[in-house]
Amino acid sequence: MAMMKLNICAVIMLTGSAVAAEGFGQTDLTQIAIDPGMFKGGVMDIGEKPNRTTVFCTNCSDRVLLDVILSRSTDGTEERFRTGQTTVQNLEKICKSRDPSCTLKRVEVGPALGWITTYGTNSTVVLFQDGDMLTFRSVSGDAALSLSNARQAIKSIAPQIVGN
Q: Any alpha helices (H) in the chain, and if so which ranges?
């Protein structure tokens, strides 16, 4: 009986991780072209999986990385944001309550929309399209470097994933 429960759990976990994106043009991050040299901070390398790719510095004294995560959003955030029920101002207020240095701005890439936040020395981009969610999490010890890498991801990676 215990083995059967374990097998059922394994099937559920594998099924959950295999859920493909439905709104974006590209559903497998291993199929997009990422030039690690376009990101600042040092010598960069890439670790790739279909739903998560990480660009990371191999020679930095500080941690410098960009996480690219493709997932689903089923909690209604996209709809509330698209309809204006949740505004950039609402989101920024929440963010500032957690970190007074937070800034939040609207971002659009083709039909996908979302926001970019900066807080402390990190930046995060969240884009939604038809239930799909693309997240760029840029981390470093320098706010300007994290923001630069997040903006580069919006410019060079997001269009490959979002499609038309």
A: 2-17, 77-83, 88-98, 143-156, 158-162
